[in-house]
Amino acid sequence: MGGGGGNDRLIHGSADAAQQQDFSKVDVKTTALGKNTYMLEGAGGNVTIAVGTNGVIMVDAQFAPMHDKLKAAIAQITKQPVAYLINTHYHGDHTGGNAAFAKEGAIIVAHQNVKNRLVNPPAGANGQTPPASPPEALPVSVFSDKTTIAVAGQSAQVIHIANAHTDGDSVVYFPEANVLAIGDQGGPDRYPNISAGGGIDGMIAGTEAFLKLGNAQTKIVPGHGPLATKADFQAYHDVLVKIRDRIVKLKAAGRTEDQAVAAKPLAPDIQAQQKQDDAASERVVRAVYQTSK
């Protein structure tokens, strides 16, 4: 799920979000990124597609009810089928469309931990454990470190980011187009969203790793929010380091988690800079406190 203020109330509560939304009113916005790649915005995580001459590589698939609208948006661009669907992580606002696209022939690609989490999902933010995904929704091509997939004219480098947003994150780099899809690794005006198996150190290391891909002109598609640049994510990285250092300092000084929250280490500067509120700051302080050394 997203890392912004309001979205944080639904951290990995994808089923909740799906129940609250009227998908019939959602339109898919398509943004051309050049070299036959596109960003699709609808309901749930942003989608990236790279169109080859014999098939489409797709990154993430939003909520299940968005399948038909996403398929229609892709059909406006190309008649080629979705050959591969890459999941950046396991959350339902990114994997909900898996089963429907797989039934149409897409090969689902993801880190092994994504498959593990879909088979045995952890409890959501509401304390309830969502049902396991059906077999047809599971990744069939899994990897542990990195993999490359390709259609004619397009390739995708899929790289695992360890223990960041979750324990199964991947970023996807399209070298022909110089486009990078990063899933829920954060973004401008956002706080880090630390979920099952994730941690602040992994988010910082992961950001450093994907910033080494491409060049200054690389277009970055975040899991939520607008298209971004490397400069945006260098600034975000620097905010992550400040957040970690302030909370770790309190923890090292012997403060309890509640005392760290009460100290409001992110207010007023970082909280205002990221356009967040006290409730979002408390969630981040607790998550970082719990996952930092």
Count of DSSP strands = 12
Low-confidence stretches: 1-13
Structural class: alpha/beta
What composes the largest sheet? 7 strands, mixed
Q: What sort of overall outline do the alpha carbons produce when their principal axes are compared?
A: globular
CATH class: Alpha Beta
Radius of gyration over alpha carbons?
Answer: 18 Å
- Count every helix, treating DSSP H or I runs of 4 or more residues as helices: 10
Q: What's the CATH architecture? A: 4-Layer Sandwich
Quickly describe the structure.
With 293 residues, the protein is α/β, with parallel strands linked by helices.
Characterization of the model:
- The N terminus is likely disordered.
- A hairpin with a 5-residue loop joins β2 and β3.
- It is built from 10 helices and 12 strands.
- 32% of the residues lie in helices and 21% in strands.
- It starts with 13 loop residues before the first helix and ends with a helix.
- α6 packs antiparallel against α7.
- It has one domain: Metallo-beta-lactamase, Chain A (4-Layer Sandwich), CATH 3.60.15.
- The strands form 2 sheets. It has a 7-stranded mixed beta sheet with strand order 1-2-3-4-5-6-7. Strands 8-9-10-11-12 form a 5-stranded mixed beta sheet.
- It is of the alpha/beta class.
